[in-house]
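Exercise 7.
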Amino acid sequence: MRRRIILVVGVIAVVVAIYFISNMNLFSKVDNGKEDAVSQATASRYQELEIREYQGVRLDPAIGPRDNSISGIQEVDLSTYQLQLTGLVDKPVSYTYEQVLEKEKAQRLITLYCVEGWQATVLWEGVCINDLLADAGIKDDATVVIFHCVDGYTTSMPLTVIKDKDILLAYSANGVSLPASMGFPFIVVAEDRLGYKWARWVNKIELSSDESFKGYWEKRGYSNDATVN
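Solution. The predicted structure, written as tokens, is:
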């Protein structure tokens, strides 16, 4: 009797193992050799001409898996668009989109970490915010940089972080123009900060001394530091 039980248990174990192995194969590849549904969904998010590898690193699609903006994807009209530098500056400055693109460009491979649990490693290209601030001049009492966006979204970072990490304001992702869903014309590439610090559709950069300032999600309980652990 005991041998019979052991034999039955062994057969069940073999069947279960075969089942899981078969399903693993299904999850990784279907019989016709095509990618699984998850991989297909990821691949479909790449834009035409978007590069997928850089210096041996696999790049993720610049477009995220879903829209998590506060008011939907914004469509910015460049004919009326202005990027303003205001607040505690010596001289307020306004740029057109084309004027920002004329600035010295920088390119960096940086990963965005979203609080929803996904991440994306993207090759970003844009202008260093420090270069923009140099045009306006920074007053001595400025300690915080507040980003305002077309949809009313706000967030902030310490001025020291902007300076020390030479944070980018990006207009290109993976070799193509920033898509509207990722913040065209400009996104803050908030390196080593969680995704809600990556302000999209930025239209104003404000210098402030208000170190207690809280942006849209920070007012709703999210950490104002947002450092990636």
